[in-house]
Every structure is written in structure tokens, then in C-alpha cells.
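Reopening this ticket.

The earlier resolution said the output was attached, but the attachment link was broken on my side. Pasting everything inline this time so it's all in one place.
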Amino acid sequence: MGILDKLFKSKNSDHQWIRFGRASDEVKTSEQIQLWDQAMSDFESKNYLESFECLLRYLMIPNIDNVRIRKLNDKIEFELEQGSRLVTGWMNQDHFSAKSQIAFGQDFSIGLMRQLLENCLELQHSRYCIDVENYLSIKFDGYTKEASPYRLFYGLREVAIKADKQDDLLLSEFENLKAINTTHITEYTDEIKVIKFNYFKSIIDNALDPSVLGKLDVEKYPGALTYVYLSALYKIDYLISPEGKSMEYIEKAHQNYFSQNGTDVLDRTENLKEIIKELSGIGKEKLVKELYYVHHTFGVKSVVPFAIISEFISSEMNPLEWYREQGYPEVCLAICHYIGGYVLFNFSLPEPVNELMHFYFQCNDSEYFNLLGIPSPELIDDASFPKSETKLKSKIRKILEKHRVKYPELPSEISVIFNSRIDFCVSLLRFVSTLNLNLK
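Inline output:
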């Protein structure tokens, strides 16, 4: 699944897929775009089953078995993967139905039913249901003649994303529920789980360290801690990629901080700190249950023009110069890591940008990548960067060349500075923000 899902070998384990970051929409091939157009054309011609089949094929990710189709005489059945959940369903000439089973329960408490009722308010196309066999599901159905590709896409997307999120949350909160349909999940090796947990704790401990901002007087500049806390949360999201409760904490922190709820920066920063403390209370046994490899048919990030991403990077770099002039390198790095983390957390990125941002973290967290068995440059201190300039430039050049056919105006000159870690981080982010991504 692109740069975020590569096959790597752990030093002392079998081959293992490693996932980085939240689910992102895959860039569609020209063949997939043609399938979407054909689905629209077939629906307008009232060829409903043909339209539905084209839509399902449009959702297939190349080289990934994320959608499976079974064609009968007058019916199409399907199954698609979204994280830890499967969405199954069918369509005939009259009706269609899709559902994702979340959990099994012998009995359903009043607290659970109340929570499901509240969750229903977030649903636009689907609904929660409990069948006669006591399986809790999210269901989306209707008349075939009303099942346009747009309606089906957004309905299936809602079922898939909501079910994937709710299963871990509900299972962690209500002990009477039991997990189901997990055979498609790939468990990480125990070695990788330990590496991820240890780095998870390391990120948190570093964020909560009183000396994290060096000699900066935190009481005079408390806002600087915002960058530390947000960068830590986004780093956990991208590098550790937990599901369930941990992901809910991160999403809650992100939404609370950037929501316009009238609270000032100090209050929001304190809220970030409290959430990081809650994450620190998650023990190894609980966290490793949230670490596994899965496929995602639908992304959860925002798809926006690259100009918006570029403008975000440029504007968020503005405060950095003052901290740099005053001699606060720790704050400068926190700002850079925050920008890189936010971009990967919030946006579906064009392929070259995606790979360059992944490379950014591979350079800044090289020890972690090497422990996972992913060969990375060992960039321990400032002196490591000028020594590794040739290799780092070569890697950046390879990323650009890989995508030059699609984006012919990508630069040939690499304006990245390798004098120190700060120089590298600042200049690489600025380099990314200035990329010309005009299509061929």
C-alpha cells in the first residue's frame, strides 16, 4: 500500500509488514478512474449490477486483496476489508445490503445501548442493529434503483470506517462483548510489538520531561509546549500506529486543540498534556492488543489541493525563526516535527510528498526504524548529517525520479541543507512545500 506499507525483515524474525500512520486514500490508477466513469454510465443506463461491479473494482487496491467479488446469475456478493473489520453484502435487481459485524454479545447493557443511540447521530447513511444471533453490526441498505455509485461509495465508506473504529472502543469498554471476524488481521511478531511499545513509552517520556525545551523558560513561553505535545501525539500516530483507545486519545486531542471552542492556548495546551498522561497510563498488555497489520479500503484523511498543504507548511514555519535566533534548538525541532506529523496525520498526500515526509521521520527516528529491521541512515547527532549528505541526497533524488513521469516539473536540484539536524528538517520541509506537482 505505497510507502506506508512496505515489506521489511526484522533482524531476528520472519518477514513482517509494517504499517505507518492512519489509513490514507490510495491514489487511483487511470484504469480505476475509468471503472468509476463506467459505473456512472451503467447506472444512468439502469444496468445496476454492472454499475455495482465497476464500483467494487474501483475500490480494489492494486496488488492488495482488499475487495473480493462473487458473481451469481442475478446477484453480486462482496466482501471488503477496513482495518479490523470486514464489510459484507450483496445486490440484486431490487435491493442491496451491506453490513459490518462489530462484536458478539450475550446481553447488551443499558449503558451500551445508550452509547449506540448517541453514536447513531453521527451516521448519515447507515444504522446500528442487533440480529437474532446477537451480533452487533452497522448496516446500510436500500433499493437498487436508488443505489448510485456516489451513494454506495459514501454509504460503504461510513459503514467501514465507523465499524473499524467502534469495535476496538466498544470491546475495551464493555466486557460482555466478544471480538469476531479477526482472521484477516496479521499479528506483528512479539519482537516488533516490544519495539513499538518501548518507543511509544520513549516518545511519551520525552514529551513529559521537564527539560524537553532545553534552557527555554516555559513559564514565559508556555505555548512552546504545544509543539512538543502535538508532535509527540502525531509521532505516536505515525510511527506506532495503534488502533482502539490510543487512537481515540490522539484524535480527541487533535480535535479539541483545533476546534474553535473559545478556550485559550494555555488551556488547550494543558489539555494536550493531560491526554499524553492518559496515554502514559496504557500498559504493555493493552497497547500490544492495538498493534496489528490490516488493509484499509477507505482512507480517513482529508483530500485537499497540494497548495493548501504547501501553505500550511510555510505558515507554520514562521514562529520557528524567532526561536532559532534566540538559540532554542529544541523548540525549533519540535515545530518541525509538529509540522511533519500534522501533514501526515491530516492529509492524503501526493505520492512524492508522502514518501519525502516518510523519509523525514526515517531520518529523525533512524534508531527506531533500524530496530524494526528497516535499514535507515544512523543520524544520531548534528555531525551525522554532513557526513551522510551524499546518501541522503541520493535517497531524495530517487524519490523524485520515481515520480517524475507523473509529475514532470519536480525539481532536479535538491535544495536541502545538511549542516545539522535543524538545517535538514527546516530545509526539507521548505523543499517539500515548494514542489511543483503539475501533472503530465
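Reporter confirms the inline version is readable. Confidence is low (pLDDT under 50) at residues 1-15. Residues 155 and 429 are 37 Å apart (CA to CA).
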